[in-house]
Every structure is written in C-alpha cells, then in structure tokens.
User: Fold these one by one.
Assistant:
Number 1:
Amino acid sequence: MKDKGKRIKLGLLVGFAVLILTGCPAPKHKEDKLVIWHWMSDRRDAFNQLAEKYTQENGLEVEFKLFSPPELYSQKIIAAARAKTLPDIFGILGRRKTLSSFIKAGYILDLSSYMNNKINSKEKNDRLWKDSFYPTTLKMVTFNPNNNYAVDPGIYGVPIDTAIMQFVYNKNLFEKAGLDPNKSPETLDEFITLAQTIGTESSVTGFICGWGEDWLLNALAVEWALNSMGENNFFKTIEGEIAYTDPEWIKVFTIFAKLKDSGILAPNIATMTNKEAESAFSKEKAVFSFNGSWSVNVYKQLSEKLNYGFFSLPKVSSEYPTKVWGGAGSSLLIDANSSKKDQAVEFLKWLSAKDQQEFLAKETNNLPAIKNVDENLPLILKGLLGSFTNLTHPDIWPKDEDPRVIETMNRGLQQIVMGLKTPKQVAEEIQKKKEKVSNK
Amino acid sequence: MKATLKDKAASFSFVLPALIIFSLFYIYPFIYSFILSLTNYNMIGKFNLRESFVGLQNFKDIASDGDWWKAMYNGAFITFWALSFQNILALMLALSISQVVRMNKFYRVVFFILPILSEIVIGLLLRRLMLSEPTGHDILNHIVNNLGLGFLAQDWISGERVRLITALVHCWKGFGWAFVIFLAGLQAIPEQLYEAARIDGANAWQSFRKITLPLLMPVITLIMVITIIGTMSAFAMILALNQGAGGETTVPIMIIYNHLGTGLAGLACAEGLVLGVTLILISFTMFFVSKKVRKKYGLLPD
C-alpha cells in the first residue's frame, strides 16, 4: 500500500518533469483545412464570409485567425516561424527587411511560377495572374535580380488590398467659412492660411494627426523631403552621400517648426495616437488631418455625417513632384513548408479575383489590390485611385534607411513640434546617428 | 548523524522541480540573451553563431549611444522621485495608519487598490484627465483652476515639465506597494521598545530615529530595491500616458522594445543585459549599505 502511494507520487513527479521539459505540444493544423493568420481584426466578418463562400464553392474549409494588436501579431509570427508552426497562409508586418529575412530563412514560397501563368489555364484569353494587380502593389512583394537584400528574385506574396496616405479635410468646415469645399490647398502656405482661417472661424484645431506614432510622422517627413529635394538627393542621403545637415534637409525639418509656429497644430500632437486623432477629426474638431485610405472605414464607423475629402501633399517646392506614401496594403504569403501549397495558391487566386476584391472593398472600405474593380467603389475611394501613379514606399525603394536613424529622426521631429529643439539641432543629431550606424 | 546518499537524493528531489523551472525560465534565457547580445541576429531564421557573431560591437554601440543614456537618465529621474517623494509619502502614511485603531483595514485596502490596477489603465485614465481639446476635455486644468490653483494649469502631456509629471504619475502607481510593505514592517516592531523609550523620556522624534528607523532598515532596503527595479523597468504606463513624449520620457525598455521590433534583436539583448546588470549592481549596493547601517546600530553581530 505504502509502495503504491510512493509509485503514484513518483509517477506524478516524472509526469510533471516531462511536461515542463517538453512544453506544450506544437499546434497541428487540421490536414483538410487551410489556416490563415492575419492582424486586421476589423475585417473579421468580411473574411469569415469569404471563407464560407469558398468552402461552399470549392469544398475546402478555410479558417481565418485574426490576432491583434499588430505588435503582438509580429512576435507571434516570428515565434511560429522558429517553431515551424506557421499556418498555410499568413501576413507579415514590418518593412522590407523583415520580409527579406523570412524569405532568406526559407519560410515563404516563391510564387513567380504561378504569377507568370494565366489565372485560369482553361481559358485562352485569360491574362497572367501578376497582370491583374496594380504594379506598385505587386512591387511590394517582388524582389528583382541583384536586389540589396540578397534575396533570390521572385514574387513572394499576393496583395489583397492597397493603402495610401493622404491629407484629409473637413468639407463642412470649409463651407461654414464660405469657402469652396471642393478646392483643397495646393501649397504649404495655402494650407497653413486655410487652417488658421477656418480654425479661427469655427473655433477648431487647424491640423490634427497621430504624431505620437512614429510611422505617421515619418511618412509625412519623407513626402516633404521628396518634394523638397527630389528622389535623387533623397536616396543619396540614404546612401550616405548627402548629410542630414544639408540645407535641403534642414528646410524639411523647418516645415515642422513652421507648422508649430503657425499655431495650427493640435495640442499634444507629438504624443497623440492615430485613434485619438481619428476620433477628434470625425467629431469635426479639426480642419485637416493626415491619414491612410483605411480611415474611410474608420470615419464611416465613427460618424456617418462626416463630409470630408482627401488631397495630396501641400507642396513646398514646384521643382520636384509630390509623391504619395503608399502601395503597401496587406499581402498574404504562403508557408514554403506547408503541405497544402497548391490549395493555398488556388485560394489566393480566388481571393484576388474581381468578385472577392469588390466584396472586400465594399465591406471594408479599403482600396483593392487589383485593377478594374473601380466602377463599384465608393466615390471617396475612387478619388484615391488617381494617386496610384506616383506612389512611394520604403518597400519599393532600392535601399531603406537604418531603423535607428529613422527612430532618431522621428524623435527629433516630435521635439521640434514640442518646441524643445531647433531643426538644426535635430539635423545634427540625425547625422551623428547616421555616421555611427554607417561606420560599423 | 551523517546523511546517506539516499537522504541527500531525497532532499535534492524536493529542490529539483524549482531548480528545473529556475534553470529553464531564468538561467537559460539569461545565457541565451548573452549569446544573442554578441550577434546581429534578427530572430528570424536559423541561428548561426559563426555567421552572426559581432563580438562586443553591440556593447560598444550602447556605450556611445546618446539615446540609450538619455533613456537611462529618464529612468533614473523617475526612480529618484519614486525613491524620495513616493516612498517618504508612503512611510508617512504608513506611520499614521499604524497609529489608527478604527478602520485600519479599510485604509489598507484603499491604498492597496492603486498597485492592483493595471499600469495601462492608470496611464490611460490620467491621459484622459490631462488631455486638452480637441482630443480631451482639459479636466485636470479645470480642476486646478476651480481650486484657485490656476498657476498650475499647463500642458501636462507634452509640455516643458512632462518628465516631472510622468515621474509623479509613476509614483501614484508605486505608492501602494511601498505603503503596504512599510505598514507590515512597522507592525512587526515590538510595542515594548516604544514603551521603554517613553519611560526613559524619549520624545516621538527620538523614538522614530533610534527605534523605528533602524528596525525598519531591512524593509526600507527592500522597498528601495523594489522601487529601483520597478521604475527602471517602467514601460506600459509611460507608453499609455505620453508615448515617450519625443524622447523626454522614453525609458530603456521602450528602446529595447523598439529594437526588438525592428530586427535588432542582438542589440536589444545587449541593452537588456546592460540594464539588468546595472540593476543587480544597484541592488547589491543597497543591501551592502543596509547591512552597514544595521551594524552601526548594533542590530547585526560584528
């Protein structure tokens, strides 16, 4: 009896030790089901409806698993990749360097052979799969020969939507001030004057934006830099041939000081989140904002009455063209080690077809990834399609800046709008960081 | 009686589960972090030490990184206010409550509610109070104006005093822990010592200085160590409150988190180690000083 008790205790101890040492078993995805991981939890309903439709049409079960917030999703994907438990299809967040690391590690399937074939091999006149996408959107997941990331050339993902960033203005406030609601500002000076005039007239803030979040601030700074100095000089800076202390760059940083001095910036803008800015703009508390095309869905949910329009970057120079930050939406990638690669490809072909793209655009108010679906788009989104010819994004640049330099620039810009540093001081700090990371 | 091998094995088996857990979740990550800190590995793909080895480069980078040391300074600034303002206030309150006979438990619960609340919740709550139009309602400025303290009205979230305000908000979070531990420490001091001191003619200040303070020294040391570790590793509340306010309230963990997110895992591990070792050194110094003080008052044998 005593021995039996001892044996039970010993058994429990061994069991506990085994459990600790082996950890939880890796989740196995059901063999007869395609599993997709994504971070856009606001699209849950639309994705589930599409999954159901696909199952009805093709008999294969599809499950979308959505995880948020995005930062945690990124960690989850990295952990799953390392543990070899990636789902059949997934999206990744981060800049091009992250995508290239995943590809080089062998986690992502090269889709070139599928993309260079017709969508439907039975139909004679059908076009190649890759030709259905907007070129810039496809570029985000394409690596050309001799790319700087040392990735084998190929197409590694399927874009499912497109996002761009533009300035937004409140048409009601324009009308209230007796101005033409269809005439947005074209230059920075016009922009500031309008923000001051309408802001005073309606007792609202001139400009609001989530500049507490680095990516918004960085996108705007890059757009102004490209307009001010041109692409050539901009890329020369990334290459280290032009310093951030160059007068052209100081001119860019001075724009932010000018905005601060004009009094049009919302209080606390340097610590503001995009959600806060979106909420205030939808309540008609600001004349202008800077946001992405996804905000169409956000503003619709926050206020049905909001009457607004998008417009391009207010120019600081007429010497170089303005560029629109965007092109990257969400792309889906296929696990190179998945046992259902072919089924995954077929599903993505189906998802990127016209009917599904139209459905996604209508349900989620996002710009489509493929061409020729614009006739059924909401008017506000249709207007944004015109920007697709002059898009810019780090994912399509020949070389991206070091994240530490970007971090220093963003912090510096926040300090300028907080009135803590001058553009020159910020330029010197960025250059110092640039030299440090380049001298390794 | 000499312990047999069987006895030793039996004793060791009691320690084994704890040892396994400690090794797996503390020792192994520490060693792995140290190895990663010597590389430029980005956590994606197979880890190859030979290919990614960069020696002490990450540590050299940290040594000359102004942003990192500014974040350390911000952390130290918050720690200074937590050690002084927060803990002195907690001690004073604990001293008062320890004298209260009625509703003693009620006060304990009230002051302990603060640390139970999530840091994010505290950060967001106070942000809502401090935000001015158009994203907030300027509630805090309305309150100070209505109290006749209009000179205090300011931009609480991104103004000139943002670092100080963040430090004080963080005190609000840490205050509850310090209060409860101080109270427990005070209640462990035998009442007879105070009675004897009163008979000898000691006043309140003398009793505090000669009895309370020396006997509370281990508790003070513990609170100081907890405070330093807690404030130097602060992150969530500051992120929710002001997102680092353009570097003015950026703390070391924020930098580590950013570097992890941008594929600089090796550098992030090195930063984690620098922060960890700094905190260990400070903690040991605190225990050493505490020991010296207790020796001075004859509370420890020579």
Number 2:
Amino acid sequence: MSTSLGGRVVGGTASYIDERTGAAKAMRYGLRKVFPDHWSFMLGEIAMYSLVILLLTGTFLTFWFVPSAAETVYTGSYGPLRGVEMSEAYRSTLDISYEIRGGLLLRQIHHWSALLFVASIAVHMFRVFFTGAFRKPREINWVIGLTLALLALIEGFAGYSLPDDLLSGTGLSFARGMILSIPIVGSYVSSFVFGGDYPGEALIPRLFIAHVLLIPALLVGLFVVHIMLVALHKHTQYPGPGRTEQNVVGYPLMPVYTAKAGGFFFIVFGVTVFLSTFAMINPIWAYGPYDPSPVTAGSQPDWYMGWLEGAIRLLPGWLEFQVFGWTFSFNIAIGGLVLPGLVTVAAFMYPFLEAWVTGDKREHHLLDRPRNAPTRTGLGAMAIAFYVLLWSGGGNDLIATHFRTSINDITNFLRIAVIVIPPIVYVVTKRICLGLQRRDRDLVLHGMESGRIVRLPHGEFIEVHEPLSPQDAWQLVQHDAHRPLPLPEGADGNGVRRPGTRAQRIRAKLSHFWFEDRVEPVSPAELAAAHAHGDHHAVTEEHTEMQKQLQTGRH
Amino acid sequence: MTALAARRRHPLALVLLIALGLLATGAAYSALAPKAASAATTSTQDIAAGKKLFLANCASCHGLNAQGAPADNRGNIAGPSLIGVGAASVDFQVGTGRMPMAEPGPQAPQAVVRFDDKETAQLAAYVASLAPGPQIPTAEEASGEGGDAAKGGEIFRVNCAMCHNYAGAGGALTRGKYAPALDNTSPKHIYEAMATGPQSMPVFNDKNITPENKKDVIAFIEASRELPHAGGSSLGNLGPVPEGLFTWIVGIGALIGCSVWLGSKAA
Amino acid sequence: MSQTQHGSTDGTLAQRPGLPEHAPQIEGTTAAPTLFENPGLPPHVHRLADTDPKAAKRAERQVAALFTLSILGTLVFLVSYFAVDPQTPVYIPLIGRTLLQNFLLGLGMGCGIFFIGIGAVHWAKTLMPDEEVVEERHYLRSTAADRDGAVQALQQGGEESGIGRRPLIKATAAGALGLFGLPFIVALRDLGPLPGDRLSRTMWKAGMRLVSDPEYGPIRAEDVTIGSVFHVMPEGIDKVHDKLEQKAKAAVLLMRLDPADIKSTKQKAWGYQGIVAYSKICTHVGCPVGLYEQQTHHLLCPCHQSTFDVTEDCKVIFGPAHRPLPQLPITVDTEGYLVASSPFHEAVGPSFPERGHR
C-alpha cells in the first residue's frame, strides 16, 4: 500500500465512494473483464467514438448557431455574400465559419464525423452480419443496432439541413415532394410538418429540436442498452484453438483494453480532425442561401441518402396514376417509402428467419467465418450490390460528366442493372465461398503445398505437403456442418393430416435453399483415411524432422 | 580624291542607298504609325481574309455562305447557320478552341486554339459582316473590376448554377452534353458566352442580364476563383459525392488501417 | 479445462471421445457440430520487448516521443489561435490555397489528439502483458428456481393487487390510462393549418407583369429573343410577407421559340408570338427546372433528370416525372410589357393526392 500523498488521496476517495455505493465489487469484476482481440471488433467502436465526437462538437456549435428562419442581411467578412438576404440560421453558420476562430474547424469535424459515423455503422453491421454475430442471444442487439442506424440517417439529414443553404434546402424541397406523395394524406402531413406552406418558418426550429434533443436522446439511450447487452453477453470471438462457446479468450480491460480502446478513441478523433484540416466539407458560403428559385447542378444529399436519391432517379414516371381523381405518385412513394420500408423489414427479420430455418436454439458466441455460411454471405453480398447500384444512381450526373457518357444511358443501364446484377452477385459470392471451403478441406486432408519438389527413391517426383499443426487444422474443421431439414410427413400413419405441416414444408424447402449446396468440413474418419494414404508415407517420416525444425520458427 | 569619294561611284552604291532608304522609311512607319484599333473597326481586308479562312476551315460544316447545313433525320445539325451570330460568337468559339470542331460528338469541347488572335479577328469580322449580331465586348465591359460580386452571385445562382454548378465546376446535360467548368475561362469569353449562348447554353442578352450585371457575374466568378478554400481541399467543388468517396476511401480506410495495426501482435 | 490449456503444435487433431465417426445432425435443426477436439491455446510467443531489455527501453522511448508529439500539437493549436490572423491565406501542395489559421488549428488539434492514441496503443502492444487470458462464460438462461420464483412473484403481486377480482377497477383503470395520453396527441393539431386549396393556387393573376428574377425588372416582348431564357417572378413578389413561400410556387421560365417549331396549338395560343411561359417547379418533387437546352428545346431538371420538351407543351420525355409542366398564359399589356393573361389553369409543382379534385 502506498503511503505517498497521491496514493492516500486516491485511496481515500475510492473508500469514500465505496462506502456510499458498494462500487468496489463491480470494479473488481469489471476491471479484469476479458475482451477478445481482432481488428474487426474495432469497427463498432469507430461508430461509438464518432457519436461522442458529434455530441462534443455539436454542443460547441449550439453556442453560436441560431435556429431561426427569420430574414436578415449579411454584413460579415465573406465578400461574395455581403448585402445578400438570408435566414438567421444561414447567417449564424457563416459566422461560425468565418468569424469564430476555430469555428470552421469545429463545424467540419462535426460534419466529417457524421459521415464517418454512418459509414462505420455500415461496416460494423457488415461484420456482424457476415460473421453471424446476430444469432442467439444477440438478436435484440441486432434490432437495436438497426434502429440506431436508421436514427443516424435521420439525424444526419436533419443536421445538414439546419444551415438552410441552397444545397440542403433543395434536399428539403425533395423531402417535401416525398411527403406529398404519401397516398391520401400527403398534403396534410406536409402542412403539419412545415407549419403551412413550403418552406415556411417552422421547419428550421423543429429540425433543430429533433437534431439536438430528440434524436440524440434516442441515440444515446439505445446505444447505452446496446453496449450494456454487449457487456452482459460478453463479446463474441472468432473460432480458434483454445476458444470455445463457454469462454472468452483475450486481454483484460485493465490495463490492455483501457490503453487500446481508450487509445482508439483518440485515434478516431485524431483522424477525424485531420480529415477536417485537409479537406473542405459542406462549403455553405459557396452554395449560397436557400431560395426556391435557384438550384445547383450536381444536387445530391450526403452519401448515406444516396441510395434513396438513386431510387428516385431510376423509378420511371408511368408509376404515377390517378384513380377517381386521387393521384397516387408511386414513382416517388416506392423510392421514398416502400423501398426503405422493405429493406428495413428484411434486415430486421433476417436473424429470426435464419433461426427458424436452421431450428438452432443454442447460444452462439463463436463467430462464423463468412465462407462457412455461403448462403448468408451470398445474400449479404447481394444486398450490398443492390445498395451500391442505387447509390451510383444517385450520382449519375457526376458519372456522366466525369466519364463523358450520357446520363440517359446511365439511367437506363442502372434501371436494368439494379434488378439483374444482384442475383448474379449472389451466385458468384456463394460459389466463391464454396470454393474456399473446398480449399480448406484440401488443406486439412493433404497439408499445405510447400513448393518443394522431392524425388523419391523409385524415381517419382512429388511436391512436399506440410501437414497443418493441430491449431491451424482446428481452425478449418471446428465449424458446424449444416444439412437441409428432411421434408415432413404430410400425414401420420392413419392418413390424418398433421397440423402445422404447411409451415414445416416451407421451412424444409427454405433449409434446402440455404444448405443444399454445401461443402462439409473434414470429419475424423476422412482425416484418418487421408493419413492412411500410402503415397506420402515415406515423405512423412523424413518430414516430421523438418516439421520439428520449422515449428520453432514458424510463429 | 578621298576614300569615300572613290567608293561613291561603286556600281552597288545605288542599290545600297535605296535599301537604306527603304529600311529607314519602314522603321519610321512602324514606330510612328497609329496602332490598329480594337475589333470594333475592321477593314474590308480583314473581312476578305476572314472569308478565305472561313471557306478553308468552316464551310464544310457551316455552308459556303455560312447558311448552315440542314438537319439530319434525327434533328441533329452538323453546323448551324452563322448569319446573325455576331463577332462575339466567333471570338468565343474560335478563341476557346471549340471551333473548328475536331471530331463529331454531342458538343464541341474546349480544345487547343487553332488560330492566332489576328486570324480569329478576321473570322469574326467576316461573320459579323453577314448580319448584325453581338459584338466583342470592350476590355472595360468584360472585366470584373468594379462589379458587385454579391449581386453577381445572386444572378449566377438563379441563371447559371443549375448547369455550371454553384462554383462553376460544370454539370451534366442530356444525351452526353455538358456545361463545362469555368475555372479556365477568361472574363472576355465568359461575357461572350453569356451574350451569344453557345451550343446548348441559352442567350442572355443585355435586356435579360444587363452589361452591369454581366460585370457583376464576372466579378463573382473571379472572386470564387481567387478566394482561398477556407476549410482545406475543395475536392473538386462537386458537393457531397466526392465528400462521401473521401469518407469511405480515406476516412474508413485509415481507420481500418489503424484497427489492423492495433490488433496485430508487436514484433 | 484441458481444452484451454496450451496445446502442443505436434501431432494431429484428436477426435472427441465417445462419438460416432460421422457428425450427426442435431434433431430438429440443420446443424451437425464438429467431432474434433479443441487442441487448446497455441504456445505463447514472446515479443522483443519481453525478452530484450534494450528493446523494451526503445519501445518506452517511442511511446514517450509519441506523447511528446501530442503535446507539441496542442501547443501549435494554442499559439495559432491567438497569434495567427484568421484571414491569412496559405498555399499547401495537394490542397491548394486555404486559410492558414484554420489549417494550423486543425493540424495542431489533430496531432494533439491523434498521437495520444498512437502512443497508448503502441504502449499496450509493446510493453503491456500480452499473455492471453481466459474468462468463463455463463449461460444467460436463469436457473429454473429463479424463473419459477419470478413467475411466482408476478402472480402473487397480481393477486395481491386484486385486479382480477375487481372488474370495475380494471375497466376504469384501462379507460383512464388509455385516454390520458390523448390530449398530447390532440395538442399537435395546430402544428400546421389544413392545406386547403393553397397548393393549387399561386400568386399569378390576370394582368400581373412578369419581372426578372432576381432583379425584378419588367420585360418587354421584343427583349425575349429566340434562344433566350428569362427566369421570372410575378410583379410585387418582393413586397409580400411570405416571399419564399410564394416564390416556391410562382417561379416561371420564359422562352421564345420560332412559332413554326411549336407543335401544340394550345401552347401557341397561351403564348405570345412564340414566347411561352412555363412553371419552373418540377412536377416530380419540386426542384426548379432551370436547365434550358437552347438547341434541342429541352428543359432538364438537375435533381433527378426529368426532361421536358418545350416544343410539345413541356411533356415529359425522360426521367421520373409524370406530368408536363403547367403553362402560364401570357400576353402583353398596353405598354408592351409581358403580363399573365390568367392564373395557372392547374396546380403547379409536385403531385399531391387531391390534385385531381381541385
């Protein structure tokens, strides 16, 4: 026990708190909690730290931003706007950029961080999906995570619409057109959201409260539940030697993870600040204040809305029609309402669908290698391909100018590509996964090709294969094989129809879709048969010597 | 008799004297003669020279009398009529290298300038002689100096930004046509483009955008070019698309790189 | 447990004892788990800093240097904030001309933060122990005793409340709790007025002059030459109190075509000697349709590339819009200035559900 002054102060404080909260017990348990080590587990942390950065820089911005659409005339230091009429919101954002020292830097950090926030949520979601981390007991966390993703999209849209510049105002005009396309009640919803006619004076203050209070409260609240569930379930881990469903192998929170994860916060923050130093983002002074009459070429929303923008550009006009004088604008409603709705529902339902198809009710804490779940990986790649194609549709005019093509051709191509290419991506991805699984089987059965050619005493040339160590081989055989469910009997022995058979039949058919094409991992019988294979026997004896020499240096 | 006197009677003395006289007259003339006025005044020689250049380089598309070629069955015109387009059109098209058009395409891009200033002026004089049309602006008219960049910005955003983009970085039109970027265009050519409406660009005559307003627009474009990019690299001034690409490629790329480093074992 | 001890790297994988040779499928599921036995953690490999004190010292110096870089970065920020003029430009390769103070503030703050992270991670990687630690998981499912106890507590609480035996309380409680939230929903009614017919009406009236946007000067018919496009607003729009809301409906494009090129008789009749006026608000989702391609007579909307053919009454020839742009009938007044001869004959802008009724 330290008797220095510092030591006594810390000890005294800790004792004071413990006598009032009993915190020592939690600290004893929590400080040695083990986290597994893999770079792909940091992706969610990028999102977490971006949220913290957003809250911090956002708070700074609220000290100077004026959320009002009231008209004023600019008298600040940016010459090309002096004397121009604009809203207070726009004027205050200009002041943050040009009058407040460090204001532009803070604004840019806030906006770059928002783009990184949504991007990191996306890569985190991909990692969770492709490794099957959404399986029991983490389905609730998947649902919470998706909700967080959707909230992040809305929060970002609200945020960049606050400065009331020409580009984001055009985006709000588009949002209003989408609201008008809601069947039957569109004009009422629009009038309530905008407080009357468009653009109105109510929207900026309302967006401000949504952006600064309502959605951040939801984001922080849901995120706390999200992270508490991770702590409760303990983090998943990649399969490997020594890792089982009943343990977590890694490093303790104190000191390693405090340094690594804590350090990573500073790394994320630092990279965001560097982005904000070297690259301009959202130069609202160049766009000019919002006015319904002008518009800029290359009007796009921020990247994460690009897929909806693309859908709206690609959907053809004949989808709008009139019935008994009522107009139904499905060319807009499909892109703005139906598509995001379907995608969200599909994403939410996936863990439950897969659990129903496999019938697997065990807890899963070991991750899948993506190649070992070929159908899931193929479906995920297909979804990403669909998203990327829509996203490119959102930038079709920039593709046209930069690749010297016609926007009409690009639009027509994408209209077809969006339907045709994703299934092709599914098939190709699944085949690649199956191929990789076959390669893994080869490695286990025959060892790794060493590139060394040896001539046997009787004249035959063979390539020496180094057998895998048990640890390496384990990595390739530890996963479950999945086989399709048998089709259920339609009726029992007496011909009486079993209840619930229809659902069972669908389930069996789906399990065929999921698992009919499969490559099973090597079984002990197959491994024994391979070892009994005579051809490599002579080499194996000689080889055990070489193997021993190699192993010491291998790791 | 002196040495000089002996050479005075040399057979080539007269030739030398005449040569010296011509040289002196020529030098005096070029030193003292008034400079040619700006394109406002052209001589019939300019028009004739211009016609010669026109017939050699332009008539194949624009017709022997500049009356234009008829449209094909798809409505495309190989070369529109130049009667009434004015000297400003020619000065713009030829001066930016758009004409003569090197190869067919949806529109004529800015290219290597084929003719020097004098030849351009001659072509302009010829075309102007066919019918009245927009004239080449004076140096004072075409400069942004004294223009109000703020007013110019408002006019630019209503009339120009939807094709040329908020910063003049260019934009797409239909069927492979495009509105070019403005960063390499001189103030005179900007003025002429507004006045003549080249290719797909509409005509912004002096009643639509007055000469003062054109000056304001030029002042705005120059200010946009000259002002520093406050927050760092402008990423092409193309808006959220390059910002999104930068986020994914540089931002997520760097962070994944740092994550991989963080998770890897030290030496 | 033997599975998590460090195994050797020699030999082959062992099979879990007591199981058949081919992996059986778990009944009712698609899963057939592996039959092999986990060989245990691989042998630990030491880092340079673990075995070599000089390497450890070097790592320590590296970490210290990184933290020092952070301190320097923060100092750069603090000095630049006060000492550098915010307006000073600077040229930086690859970035171009930018503002010096902003650049230095960002560089300083960035280094100040980034190198703390790099230093901390490098410290953890090289000097902190990297022996893998194993923690046991516990089944999440509670014991049967706990579950039964929880159910019992709920049931007991429900019985003690008596709600099952007192239907009157149950009914009125449900009523009260179900209704108390309604006032908060009803209070949202005044978020905005009912739309009325405002979406179908614009500021344009017969006799109203067309003025240029943004200068608001009147326009004579002969000023509009073939190939021109004028962005116009109704006269007096700069004086109304809801200027932006009126602009969002009243924006109009004025173009002149050769009357021989105009294919629609209605279009010619509503125009004036080949001058035609169309609503600038796109019928798709409401962006201004500003791009007039003078030679093809096409109007292109920059947002989603809806294309309208001005020779055919602005009907849609490409893109996601469905309806043609509404035409504003125009004529000239006694002084020769262009005026609207009537309001729009249909609602302008994006479609809305009751459009066909008004």
